[in-house]
């Protein structure tokens, strides 16, 4: 769940509920965005699990929630729950990469219109947002540094938006840029940060908020660098 975009308080609640249903009512868990610590009792040494990779796949989060609910209600056994969790862990992303790129492209075009851009700006925004999202996804797999990938992708978005307008395909560069960067904006991260803070998980909430700020800073820096050179 933590690897696929769930809030930390939800992860803790799921773990303790599953442990209680298996006969460990005194289980304790402590979760941050990168570490899980869990123990079945106060006397047992806690076990630590490192979270190395994080992505967004709410389908997997929903499936784990369903397994936890069924286990708590005694609808499935622990062996069945373990088997289903292994299947969820091994499953590929709910949506293939090409579909994510198409969705990002459509979102970019729609956001351009929503921000009072013209339909002549929406078409280049479709292409720019799709290419920018694809570049971010590819670079993140290549270098494993999220902020560098977003900085480079936003720079590409700014450059392509400028070139499209210069070529007569599009009217307002700023509207194309604003719409195209929206698929890169860390909306889920910001939401989870606020929800964790409201649930009392201050460390997780602040760390996610800082990550969201750095992501937004990387996007703004990439756009600003390009515009400073071409203007």
From TrEMBL:
Superkingdom as given in the UniProt entry: Bacteria
GO molecular function: transmembrane transporter activity
The keyword Iron is annotated on this UniProt entry: no
GO cellular component terms listed in the entry, alphabetical order: plasma membrane
Subcellular location: Cell membrane
Keywords: Cell membrane, Membrane, Transmembrane, Transmembrane helix
Transmembrane segments: 97-116, 122-139, 151-170, 176-198, 210-230
Protein family membership: Belongs to the ThrE exporter (TC 2.A.79) family.
Organism: Paenibacillus rhizophilus
InterPro entries: ThrE-like_N, ThrE_Dicarb/AminoAcid_Exp
GO process annotations (BP): succinate transport
Residue ranges annotated for the Threonine/serine exporter-like N-terminal domain, each copy included: 1-229
Main location per the UniProt record: membrane
Record bears the keyword Cell membrane: yes
A Pfam family annotated for this UniProt entry: ThrE
PANTHER family attached to this UniProt entry: SUCCINATE TRANSPORTER SUBUNIT YJJP-RELATED, UPF0442 PROTEIN YJJB-RELATED
Topology of the protein relative to the lipid bilayer: Multi-pass membrane protein
Protein name: Threonine/serine exporter
């Amino acid at each position: 769940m933590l690897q696929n975009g769930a809030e930390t308080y939800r992860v803790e609640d799921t773990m303790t509920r599953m442990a209680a249903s298996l006969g460990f009512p005194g289980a304790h868990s402590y979760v941050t965005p990168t570490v899980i610590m869990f123990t079945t009792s106060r006397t047992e040494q806690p076990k630590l699990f490192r979270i190395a990779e994080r992505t967004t796949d709410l389908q997997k989060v929903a499936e784990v929630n369903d397994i936890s609910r069924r286990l708590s209600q005694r609808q499935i056994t622990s062996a069945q729950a373990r088997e289903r969790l292994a299947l969820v862990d091994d499953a590929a992303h709910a949506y293939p990469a090409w579909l994510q790129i198409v969705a990002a492209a459509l979102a970019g075009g729609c956001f351009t219109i929503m921000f009072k851009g013209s339909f002549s700006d929406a078409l280049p925004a479709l292409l720019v947002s799709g290419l920018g999202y694809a570049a971010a996804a590819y670079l993140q797999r290549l270098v494993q540094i999220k902020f560098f990938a977003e900085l480079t992708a936003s720079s590409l978005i700014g450059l392509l938006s400028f070139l499209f307008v210069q070529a007569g395909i599009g009217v307002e560069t700023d509207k194309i840029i604003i719409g195209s960067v929206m698929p890169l904006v860390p909306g889920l991260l910001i939401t989870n940060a606020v929800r964790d803070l409201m649930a009392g998980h201050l460390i997780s909430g602040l760390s996610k908020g800082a990550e969201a700020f750095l992501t937004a800073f990387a996007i703004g820096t990439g756009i600003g660098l390009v515009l400073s050179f071409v203007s």
